[in-house]
């Protein structure tokens, strides 16, 4: 039987997930498996999922659908519940299980590209959808205190809820009054989830952090990445995160170990060898 999987989101035409997962299926010898893109608004997620038949092996979920994916699931992993969002749906026992392999993405990127495997204090820029996954990832490797820099404290509510679930000490800091040099110098790891234009004026100050994950990879290099590389600090990227989150998804879809090297090679080829993407 042909097996199907897809990434759902809006917009979704730019997604590199088909590159990763079709490479995985090919490497695993799953000739009848296909992976596509499906344009889908968050409000349409329940109807879309309800209409999927037994040929479907799973869904990758991108913004703005990650909270909707969690809501539609009949069961959730503990980390998806902690994040408050899901990027993976897999059919289980007549329903759908929600997971968040974005946590793997953050951890894998930091470990493989930066050598970061533990720390106690983090600096997090932005409180969007990636921020809560980063909080769960960082908490799992020992981080207990996080400075969260946001445009206004009102934007920190979801991150504060996630931190409370994790038992993390979260300190919201207003962007316009933040001492970025001090915050960077006092942290073990910096995760930036904000657009390049936001970090450009403070990139040199932020580059004082010993390890940096900039989740933006297009356009590349970002001002923050340039500053970090000029300083000789460790740098992980959103492309690293994309690769590492896909490994867990591939394994949940297929039930087989992810062919990591094949997936890495396909992503590098699709992006013109933009980044080394260590695994």
Write up what this structure looks like:
- By secondary structure, the chain is α/β, with parallel strands linked by helices.
- 42% of the residues lie in helices and 22% in strands.
- The chain contains 13 helices and twelve strands.
- The two termini are 32 Å apart.
- The model has no long low-confidence stretch (mean pLDDT 97).
Architecture blueprint of SSEs:
Elements: E1 3-9, H1 17-27, E2 33-39, H2 45-50, E3 56-61, H3 66-72, E4 75-76, H4 78-83, E5 88-92, E6 95-99, H5 102-114, E7 121-125, H6 129-140, E8 145-150, H7 157-166, E9 169-174, H8 180-185, E10 189-192, H9 196-199, H10 203-206, E11 211-214, H11 223-231, E12 234-237, H12 238-254, H13 260-270
Parallel strand pairs: 1-2, 1-3, 4-6, 7-8, 7-10, 8-9, 10-11, 11-12
Antiparallel strand pairs: 3-5, 5-6
Helix pairs in contact: 1-12, 1-13, 5-6, 5-12, 6-7
Following the backbone from N to C, one meets helices and strands in this order, namely: EHEHEHEHEEHEHEHEHEHHEHEHH
Strand line-up across the major sheet: 2-1-3-5-6-4
Number of strands: 12
Radius of gyration: 18 Å
The fraction of residues in strands falls at 15-25%
Model regions low in confidence, pLDDT < 50 over at least 5 residues: none
């Amino acid at each position: 039987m042909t097996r199907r999987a897809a990434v759902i989101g809006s917009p979704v035409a730019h997604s590199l997930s088909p590159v990763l997962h079709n490479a995985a299926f090919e490497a695993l010898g799953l000739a009848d498996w296909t992976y596509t893109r499906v344009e889908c608004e968050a409000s349409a997620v329940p109807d879309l999922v309800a209409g999927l038949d037994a040929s479907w092996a799973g869904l990758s979920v991108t913004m703005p659908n990650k909270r909707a994916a969690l809501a539609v699931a009949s069961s959730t992993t503990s980390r998806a519940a902690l994040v408050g969002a899901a990027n993976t749906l897999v059919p289980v026992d007549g329903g759908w299980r929600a997971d968040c392999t974005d946590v793997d993405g953050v951890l894998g990127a930091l470990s493989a590209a930066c050598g970061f495997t533990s720390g106690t204090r983090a600096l997090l820029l932005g409180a969007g959808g990636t921020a809560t996954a980063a909080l769960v990832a960082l908490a799992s490797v020992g981080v207990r205190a996080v400075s969260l820099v946001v445009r206004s404290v009102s934007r920190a509510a979801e991150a504060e809820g996630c931190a409370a679930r994790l038992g993390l000490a979260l300190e919201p800091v207003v962007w316009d009054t933040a001492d970025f040099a001090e915050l960077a110098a006092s942290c073990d790891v910096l995760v930036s989830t904000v657009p390049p234009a936001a970090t450009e004026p403070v990139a040199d100050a932020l580059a004082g952090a010993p390890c940096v994950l900039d989740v933006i990879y297009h356009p590349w290099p970002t001002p923050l990445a340039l500053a970090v590389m000029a300083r000789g600090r460790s740098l992980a990227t959103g492309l690293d995160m994309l690769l590492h989150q896909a490994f867990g998804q591939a394994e949940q879809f297929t039930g087989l170990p992810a062919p990591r090297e094949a997936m890495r090679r396909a992503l590098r080829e699709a992006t013109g060898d933009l980044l080394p993407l260590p695994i």
